[in-house]
Amino acid sequence: MSAAVTPPSAGTSLKNPAFWNFGGLFFFYFAIWQLAFTFLSRWLEVEAGMSHGNIGLLNSVMALTAFCLQPLYGYLQDKLGFRKHLFAFVVLVGALMGPFFAFVFTPLVEVNQVLGAIVGGLFLSLTLNAGVGIVEAFNERNSRANGFEYGHVRLFGSVAGATASLIGGFLWASDPDNIWWAATVSAIVLGTLLLVARTPKPGDPGYAAVAADAAAEGGADAAAEKPKVSRETVLTLLRSRSFLGFMVLMFGAAALYDVFDQQFPNYFARFVTGAIDPQVLFSRVVFVQILVEALVMVAMPFVINRIGAKRGLQLFALVLVVRVVGSAFFTHTYLLIFWRLLAAVEMPLMLVSVMKYITRMFDVRISATAYMIGFNMAKQVGIVVFSWVFGIAYDVIGFSLSYVIMGAVVLLVVLLAGWLMADDRHHALADGSVEPADGTPSETAARV
Fold first, then answer.
1. Where are its TM segments located (predicted)?
2. For 108-158, what is each residue's pLDDT tens digit?
């Protein structure tokens, strides 16, 4: 058994030029993400005149599209390794966001809301719901190759979210359509940073990090080879009980995190009094939330290394229950702001725990596949199911009762997933990697 490796420090990361380049990729991608998800539901209701049910349909189509693409995306990204082709496609679609909403989506909605919801969901998913997996997996792989902590570089995404929320509020006040043109500008900058980003080539020191534990399986030569993604390796992953539990948790808790936030701005707007535009106030709340989230993200890798990724995921889900049920019963503006601010703890808990659970419990050679299937696919199935259902429920039984039901579903999912998932702390080194007794970097060899 090899000695534990000291985790990379924040100071070391700051001195690495690659850290800033990949941080920039996170920043400008999540600027697009935050602009879309902070303002989309309000824009659809106020500017496009869509019903809550059709807004839910659009979100379901986004998730269904992502679900269909995730297996292909995950497989291709593991095959591509450090190559940028899929990431570049995500950037291209993001750059078309302004023209799409101006010249395609709005005329479609005027003709037929359902058709507009379907086409809009398909388009947005290519950059957002489906595209995020490419961005996360690509940057996580490069963070290991370049020797910096994923949680630290992911911090740029939180900073971007705060910045985009604040600036987006001013853009909304001037003209709500400017939100989509700002997303286009961000995508152009993102594409430039992707073009200049240097990724490891075969033979470079960092190249073997794509399969960090391959040396334990086949020696140094195996570690230096391009990782092999076989059918048997993927089937082994899918037969894992812990992977099933992980998927259950993502299907319920991670999906309902997004579903809850999708139309929360519309719920929030009902309780805002005074002269301020509810969407402008909400954008400022999100700005503060994500600034706090960024601070929490700095410490979260160390917290998860201490408590374990499984417990981190369970804690994330329990905070979500508090936030959802609290929003149903305590609806004063300041209390709704407080419930929203709790997301500053939820997101870091989920993001860091997801990556650490995957790399600790499953074969790191197929980390992108595990992420795509276990996190994104399972989550998108949940969004497909819950977005439309709760979108209709908001119209039929109201937001408050819908939120109570949502909280009960999350709690049930947490209990089931906790029973299925194994504790990752038995496999964690000081750097968050895995050191099974027999040296095999997979759950089946390490624990069953």
1. 18-36, 56-74, 86-108, 114-135, 155-173, 179-197, 243-260, 280-303, 315-331, 370-394, 400-422
2. 999 999 999 999 999 999 999 888 878 887 887 777 777 777 767 877 887
Pairwise CA distance, residues 350 & 258, whole Å: 12
Amino acid at 37: F
pLDDT at residue 206, rounded to an integer = 57
Interior CA angle at 310 toward 423 and 390, to 5°? Answer: 140
**Structure tokens of 252?**
């319920």
Question: Global pTM?
Answer: 0.71
Asked if residue 5 is part of any domain, the answer here is no
Instruction: Report helix, strand or coil for 428.
Output: strand
pLDDT tens, residue by residue, 242-283: 889 999 999 999 999 999 998 899 899 888 877 788 888 999
106 lies in some domain = yes
SS3 at position 346: helix
Phi, psi (degrees; rounded to nearest 5) at 446: -85, -30
Count the domains in the chain.
1
Residue 4 maps to a domain: no
How many angstroms separate the most distant Cα atoms in the chain? 67
For 122-181, list the strands marked E by DSSP: none
